[in-house]
Amino acid sequence: MTHNKKIVLVVGAGDATGGAIAKRFAREGYIACVTRRSADKLQPLVDSIQSAGGEAHGFACDARKEEDVIALVEQIETELGPIEAFVFNIGANVPCSILEETARKYFKIWEMACFSGFLNAREVAKRMVTRNRGTLLFTGATAGLRGAAGFAAFAGAKHGIRALAQSMARELGPMGIHVAHVVVDGAIDTDFIRENFPQKYALKDQDGILNPDHIADNYWYLHSQPRDAWTFELDLRPWNEPW
């Protein structure tokens, strides 16, 4: 192991929420370990963190493959340091009528947004319990609370990841591990929203869409909570978002 700095592992570190979370923890002195299936797409994020004086490492990893996940966690813990915070941030929001949904796509959405959360969180939890500390954070959505028409696959996966987080919180909390689920409800300030939903994006000037940096602040807040007052579920939405 090269040093004993604390590690945050962000699985699904995209250009918006996941990247903002990695940057937020890096500003607090954490080494940001970020993953996507393609390492090339991580380089701008890694460069941004390093240019700001932080430390970051990008890893190509298929979060659905058990052997890849085991190897990733082993490499980070052996070469860099203990994973103190883990963030699962894979979405897979693909709308489709239940009348047209295919078994293959339904399974793939569940595999990406739920099963991979189990694999990654399990491996990190195995390390955390030996130290009696750590934080496991799962990015959820309103689909995890209620299923909307046309989102059967996504809702099933997000219900599943919320249930996983609930179960892990009850089992691991007494072992010193803080598990929390974050419901993100509303459009996020991303290129996708700007290009595909311009009317929605126009609400940005009114604070009508979620700022990824502000989402990230809440993840840091959860990680920083004292254990006598842990939050399990946090609901984030703009002031003008309907419930």
Automatic annotation (TrEMBL):
Name of one Pfam family that matches: adh_short
InterPro entries membership: NAD(P)-bd_dom_sf, SDR_fam
PANTHER family linked to this entry: OXIDOREDUCTASE, SHORT CHAIN DEHYDROGENASE/REDUCTASE FAMILY (AFU_ORTHOLOGUE AFUA_5G14000) (PTHR43431), OXIDOREDUCTASE, SHORT CHAIN DEHYDROGENASE_REDUCTASE FAMILY (AFU_ORTHOLOGUE AFUA_5G14000) (PTHR43431:SF7)
Protein name per Swiss-Prot or TrEMBL: Glucose 1-dehydrogenase
